[in-house]
């Protein structure tokens, strides 16, 4: 049972395609694990498509110039472009070449990943001790997105966030001072929160931080640069 | 064929299907999960669906022109709002409508209304274009982020849709190596030898993974459908 979900606002932004890649990946992966949110996204998509395409209101501000361009485009499509286009084959997402790509192995554990990660895993694992990180190259300067693996009985030293931190648990379990989390749980923490996640059986998460983390407890201060590396 | 006339025609039909507030609430009761389609009569939706069928089956350009006249200006206005850069909105119209043409046969009226299907294509294209504008990235992740609500070959060949859908889901749950072999043999219809060559493993390994995978599927199905 998934207990933590993205809020309505995030879901509706996602249905519109309004979120950056790092967060779009998180919502898509959550929805693959959570039929409830997937259904809400479907409803929102239906509502948006009706609003966009079926509303009786005339499209605002289509100027004559746009109309000319649209006519020209249609003419070009009909007269030449369409005949040169190949018919697309059915989606190849599940074909054999991509199956092996869409999973990760770390410390002897093998984890299948939600479909959205299919093209995102291009780096290798880095890390120290029980904590390993695989950075995703989203091209977004403000946000760092990673897969984070914590081996059994591992923990992240207590830290607060300079910005927001998102954690989507993909496999295994972990707990912090607030709760115990299960696969699919989607936790968005702001900079007010301090926490120190621990796991008994080991876990795999997808995380985004939008600014470097501060480690706030005694000895781990020394590890601050490594803390940056971990996330 | 005058594009203006077609637009008038489609839009006058749409006034009959005015949006009412109970509409969405009723939709949430749609039973078949994943189906993005309303059961209520909607003349414009029916018209669009029949145009799609003609494009898919007969490659009918007249029908395509009607779809273009309906969707083009609306895609353009979506693009103007979203992609601030001049000229990109028209690119979005072109990218979306050419996909409507090349993917028409994948449109599945059971899964989504034409409007919803076109919306998803447009949104996904727009996402990829925005990535290019904002981060100068030439990637195309839109179709991986949002499920496509299209037919794929595996299920279009099968009449027993629900059973086949749940079987497919169980295939997904198989351990990766077994899943790979089951999918290779049954969905891509490779021979055992072809698959062995492709994966660079002995044919005996293909056989044993296949046997393990099928046994697991059989027990899934027995557990749930006794």
In short:
The complex is a heterodimer of chains A (about 230) and B (about 230). With about 230 residues, chain A is α+β, with helices and mostly antiparallel strands.
Shape of chain A: elongated
Taking the alpha carbons of the first and last residues of chain B, their distance comes to 58 Å
CATH domain fold name of the largest domain in chain B: Rna Polymerase Sigma Factor, Chain: A
CATH superfamily of the largest domain in chain B: RNA polymerase sigma factor, region 2, helix turn helix motif
Helix percent of chain B reads 55-70%
CATH superfamily (homologous) name of the largest domain in chain A: Jelly Rolls
Global geometry of chain B: elongated
| Tally of DSSP β-strands of chain B | 0
Question: Which fold name corresponds to the CATH topology of the largest domain in chain A?
Answer: Jelly Rolls
Q: What is the SS-derived class of chain A?
A: alpha+beta
**H/E series of chain A, N to C?**
HHHHHEEEEEEEEEEEEEH
Task: Describe the sheet with the most strands of chain B.
Answer: none
The gyration radius over C-alpha positions of chain B equals 22 Å
First-residue to last-residue Cα separation of chain A = 27 Å
- What's the CATH architecture of the largest domain in chain B? Orthogonal Bundle
CATH class identity of the largest domain in chain B: Mainly Alpha
Provide the CATH top-level class of the largest domain in chain A. Answer: Mainly Beta
* Portion in strands of chain A: 15-25%
Low-confidence stretches of chain B: 1-35, 153-162
What is the H/E string of chain B?
Answer: HHHHHHHHHHHH
CATH architecture of the largest domain in chain A: Sandwich
